[in-house]
Design brief:
By secondary structure, this protein is α+β, with helices and mostly antiparallel strands. It has 2 helices and 5 strands; from the N terminus they run βααββββ.
Length: 89
């Protein structure tokens, strides 16, 4: 299944503060989300504001995905990019 990726303003503002060496890996991980068969370390979240998280090193990409099997292309909305700490979840 193919996905169209959108990144919110909030996530882009958070990405500006991330060092370039990590930023490249994070955006490569987000790019891999376009094809559902190449999703790396993605976990469906339970009782959380967002539906999924992608782990990229010490950073977490929190996103929502539409999953309608009748559509050829579904949407992924990247909501936040956070460094992993005790307040991330």
């Amino acid at each position: 299944m193919k996905y169209k990726i959108e990144i919110t303003r909030k996530a882009l503002k958070q990405a500006v503060k991330i060092p370039m060496q990590f930023k490249e890996k994070i955006f490569a991980g987000i790019k891999n989300l376009e094809d559902s068969q190449t999703w790396g370390d993605v976990l469906k979240l339970v009782n959380h504001q967002y539906g999924y998280r992608l782990r990229v090193g010490n950073y977490r990409v929190l996103f929502n995905a539409t999953e309608d099997l009748t559509l050829e292309i579904n949407d992924i909305t990247v909501e936040e990019i956070k460094k992993r700490d005790e307040r991330t979840y």
